[in-house]
Amino acid sequence: MLINNIKKNKFIRNTYFLLKVVRDSFNFKPVLFVQKFLWYFKQLRDYKKLKINEKFKTIEYYPCLFDNLKYTPVEPTYFFQDSWAAKHIFELKPAHHYDIGSSVKTMGILSQFVPITMVDIRPIDLELPNLFFKEGSILELPFDDNSIDSMSCLCVIEHIGLGRYGDPLDPFGSEKAIKELTRVLKKGGIFLISVPVDRENKIYFNAHRAFTRNYLLELFCDFEILEEKYIYGNKIYNEYDPFKGFGTGLYKLKKGEN
């Protein structure tokens, strides 16, 4: 009950996140640091006592101090979101898929099955067969009207206009981004999108916005919902639940023919 009351208190929430940034920026723990290095050199000493592998005689220092965990660390939102998008792209098998600003790593993997063109304001300094790149803004996409059959934009539109990535401040950034995405998608085209959701429309400045289901679908009023999923905590659900608070909505949409 106490934790729920704290979560509902806006002043306490804002103070927590401000202090969290300070903590994360100065998160140096000298005792733990020493303990980890003692562990590292003990491991090195014990390794050197073992029978030598003649193929690997040279040893250089490269400490990895915080990977000996009892669990596999994974961020649930991107785990579920990217797996969900991959499933649908594999099922759709488009001749060419277009992605606007999503994870380069995910799109790089998917491009080995489906040709993919990525658009981002930040150039990619890597080359990979079947992965193509266009530098551009989600507010001014380098494509003609009604020109794309298959498109994705995963955890992107909520950031537009908040300055987090060096973009100009704009209270209507998300709405303008959706209008531009809608412009380039063909009638009957498929759009995979994910955004933060919450019990009310909110700005978590300067991280992202969160949308109610009703408002988001209002912005996509000319689209048919083919599928929707919701990530709350470490689970994925079939339905939006405002009482669960902050989460991530995953939507497979089809642009109307009219």
3D structure, described in words:
This protein is of the alpha/beta class. The chain has 7 helices and 10 strands. The strands form 2 sheets. An 8-stranded mixed β-sheet has the order 3-2-1-4-5-10-8-9. Strands 6-7 form a two-stranded antiparallel ribbon. The termini are far apart.
Describe what is shown at a glance.
The strands form two sheets. Strands 3-2-1-4-5-10-8-9 form an eight-stranded mixed beta sheet. A two-stranded antiparallel ribbon has the order 6-7. The protein is an alpha/beta fold and 258 residues long.
Counting helices, strands and paired strands, the structural category is alpha/beta
| Mean pLDDT level | 92
> How many helical stretches?
7
Tell me the strand percentage band. 15-25%
Quaternary structure classification: single chain
- Element pattern in H and E: HHHHEHEEEHEEEHEEE
Kindly state the percentage of residues in helix. Answer: 25-40%
Task: Note the topology.
Blueprint: H1 2-8, H2 10-25, H3 30-48, H4 76-92, E1 97-100, H5 104-110, E2 116-120, E3 131-135, E4 148-154, H6 173-184, E5 185-197, E6 202-204, E7 208-210, H7 213-219, E8 223-232, E9 235-237, E10 247-255
Parallel strand pairs: 1-2, 1-4, 2-3, 4-5
Antiparallel strand pairs: 5-10, 6-7, 8-9, 8-10
Notable characteristics:
258 residues, alpha/beta, 7 helices, 10 strands
